[in-house]
Amino acid sequence: MSATLSSPATVDAPVADRTPISSRPLLTMMASWREQGWLRRLDTAFARFLVDLSPTAPDALVLAAALVVHMEGRGHSCLRLDELLRDPQAVLGWPPEPAAALRIALDSLPGDADVWIATFQTSPLVGSDDGAPRSTSIDGHPPLMLRGHALYLRRYWEDERRVAAQVDARSRSVLPVDPVMVRMWLDRLFPADANASPDSEADIDWQKAACAVALRSKLSILTGGPGTGKTYTAARLLALLYAVDPAPERLRIALAAPTGKAAARLKQAIEISLTELQDRLGDSLSLGTLAAHIGAARTLHALLGARPDTRAFGFDAAHPLDVDVVIVDEASMIHLEMMAALFEALPTQARVILLGDKDQLASVEAGAVLGDLCRHAEHGLYRLSTAAYVEAASGQHIPAAYMGDGPPLAQQTVMLRASKRFGGAIGQLALAANRGDSAAAEALLRDNSSPAVAWIDGGSASTAVRLALQGRDAAGEAGGVDDAVGAYGGYGVYLTALQARPRGDEAPAHAGWTLAVLRAFERFRVLCAVREGEWGAMGLNQAIERALVAEGRLTKAGEWYEGRPVIVTRNDAGLGVFNGDIGITLKPAAKGAPLRAYFLDGESVRSVAVSRLAHVETAFAMTVHKSQGSEFAHTALVLPREPSRVLTRELVYTGITRARDAFTLVTGRAASLADALAHPTHRASGLLERLAPDEGGPPRAPEKQRTR
Q: Which ranges constitute the DSSP H helices of 149-224?
């Protein structure tokens, strides 16, 4: 169906000669776009809603409103009107046919971005940062907001404003610190490496420097790739806080993450680090008492007091959290609305430490907050005063390459640059993917001397199924997978553990078996770029399940069966399960008892009756988004044959970095990898611009380093 609104001659005519589209034809046109899958029902419904509120709303505003909602559904917090009018294809990434239809529609509307903005500012549907009153029928609040060339849904404009205000205030708040005492404790928490070369600029201990930086701020950000020691550093920061506080027993500490899996891993990592530190420090610091102050790690939803059937949380600015220190892991997954809620719920005096990999996928919901806040983290941009403090408090000299006239936020941000765990071929592959170097990535994947990585290209989606079942090359037409990669296994280890169910109904034996099955399942995972279709998580889950049943390795008599892996898709605090939790369905020890889903909780196991789990999906395969916060011995990343806008550099990088020992790429089209690496994610946001003027500018070198 053609969406052309005028003849080619009209399209090419001067703007002044074009006839604006009336609202009714415009809505009819957008309805046809919806029928063809270019827009969502929600997008066009919002446009109709605005026309109902204000029948005289200009056509440009009605169209822009639909696109704002459309972009929000793709993770953007705003729509840049200047960019939309300059290059709609670059903004929306639509296929040629809808892109051409949109271009015709835009060209049929009068004016450039400045004219649109001037027109929008007169509408009662649009508010702005100037606070000028608007007359609308929505509780006195306009549904849309303008800031510069950016058009927002009001909710995201408000969330962005709240986050920016909190970041600005907290990053400028410098707390008093005794550098001499801090240096004494940091030297004990980070003993010197006898093999280090102290005169080398590359040998700065960024972990040690990060503790010094975080100690004097109400907001600190610690970013870095896998294995760079973010949680290791956080544990030492907690020990440092405990050591220098005049009344350490009063410290109220909370650990949190976006998912239950990530929260459990954070807690476990902190506990392991504190135990190791206690052994080293002896009786000079009671880290056991510190551990008792920490309590259980929780999801952000649980920490903030999520309530059913409302977006509001139990804790907010009027009812702040009872905490002094909050450490949040996997912060790249935190969307704009959640980050605003977290900051609002923090007491004024509390410290918040955000940990995360700025290069990972952002949340599926609107906003890429950590990516925005860490925009210049790689450059450092530390001021002379920051460098002097870091050297006095930690003995670390910041290299000249990382000095600059950076904003206050840069002084509270540290990027860890050396991976102590994540090296070899997988580490090199991740680095190549992160910089968009497809040639280097392909060379590593095709290098038979690197058995930890492999590439199966040109097969069907059934290739991933056979890999999952056997863990080695069974693809025939798809090319080879080195046996060393296969040695890490697909789901074979988990299936073997499942068959080793102990005889009898003794609870201890059953508990040990359950733990073994859960750990075995965590060794391997199929990760998908998309959710739907043959190459998507849903299609592969069904295919893997059918294959295992056909081989007699699982017995399925209904939706629930022993051995079924499930992933929770909705938080349920009452059951103690949260979005992203992964469990295995097993029979309890008692004979005849109904099936239960068992979940790892650190080193222990908890279970829930399957009859109470209404929001779960089978989890042999899962999307890369759902895998964040997890790690598997062997990861198989599946990229579909068909081009898709979800295939991005960040998706591939995140998939690679879920693998610890082995990584296998499965593609139906060789170009899928290069296409993905050539498309870094860009999410429209005004967060940095909302910060104080010296927060949002480009990186600035110190005066002595500037050149003409």
A: 154-172, 179-189, 206-215
Q: How many angstroms separate the CA atoms of 335 and 579, rounded?
A: 14
For residues 190 and 629, what is the distance between their CA atoms, to the nearest angstrom? 26
pLDDT tens column, 421-436 = 666 888 889 889 988 8
Q: Using a CB cutoff of 8 Å and minimum separation of 24, what contacts does 150-155 make?
A: 150/78, 150/79, 150/80, 150/81, 150/684, 150/686, 151/64, 151/65, 151/68, 151/78, 151/79, 151/81, 151/120, 151/126, 152/68, 152/77, 152/78, 152/79, 152/686, 153/68, 153/69, 153/72, 154/127, 155/337
CA distance 635 to 623: 12
Q: Rounded to whole angstroms, how far apart are CA atoms 609 and 593?
A: 10
User: Where does residue 135 fall: left (phi above 0), alpha (psi -120 to 50 degrees), or beta otherwise?
Assistant: beta
**Euclidean distance between CA atoms 360 and 344, whole angstroms:** 25
* pTM tops 0.90: no
d(CA 299, CA 329): 10
Q: Which residue has the tokens 């399960």?
A: 577
| Burial class, 1, CB count within 10 angstroms (exposed 0-12 / middle 13-18 / buried 19+) | exposed
What's the token pair of residue 271?
A: 């506990």
322: number of CA atoms within 13 Å, CB side?
Answer: 5
Q: Mapping DSSP to helix (H, G, I), strand (E, B) and coil, where does residue 118 land? A: helix
Residue environment code for 471-496, b if the CB has 16+ CB neighbours within 10 A, otherwise e: bbbbbeebeebbeebbebbbbbbbbe
Tell me how far apart the alpha carbons of residues 582 and 585 are, in angstroms, rounded to a whole number: 10
Placement of tokens 């050297």 in the chain: 391
Closest by CA position to 529, among listed 426, 336, 665: 665
185/241 Cα distance (integer angstroms) = 10
Full 3-state SS string of 525-546? EEEECCCCCCCCHHHHHHHHHH
Specify whether the CB–CB gap between 414 and 213 falls below 8 A: yes
HSE toward the beta carbon, residue 98, CA cutoff 13 A: 19
Q: Which tens digit of pLDDT belongs to each residue from 23-61? A: 478 898 999 999 888 899 999 999 999 998 888 889 999
State how beta strands 144-147 and 150-153 pair: antiparallel
Q: State pLDDT tens for residues 631-686.
A: 888 888 988 888 777 888 999 999 998 888 888 888 888 888 888 898 888 888 88
Q: Which of 20, 14, 17 is nearest to 116 (CA)?
A: 20
Written as six digits, the tokens of 426 are 């997988």
Pick the closest to residue 531 from 572, 489, 569 (CA basis): 569
b/e map of 644-659 (b: 16 or more CB within 10 Å)? bebbbbbbbbbbbbbb
Percent of the chain with pLDDT over 70: 87
582-586 and 621-623 strand pairing: unpaired
Query: Is there a contact between 662 and 488 (Cβ–Cβ < 8 Å)?
Result: yes
List, as one string, the DSSP characters of 315-353: -SSSS--S-SEEEES-GGG--HHHHHHHHHHS-TT-EEE
Tell me what the mean pLDDT of segment 67-94 comes to: 89
C-alpha dihedral, 26 to 29 to 31 to 33, nearest 10°: -130
Place of tokens 């040639």: 439
Residue 108: pLDDT above 80?
A: yes
**pLDDT > 90? residue 327:** yes
Give CA–CA dist 90/503, Å, rounded.
61
Q: Any bridge partners for residue 413, and if so which? A: 221
Q: Could you give phi then psi for residue 677, rounded to 5 degrees?
A: -70, -20
Residue 313 DSSP class: B
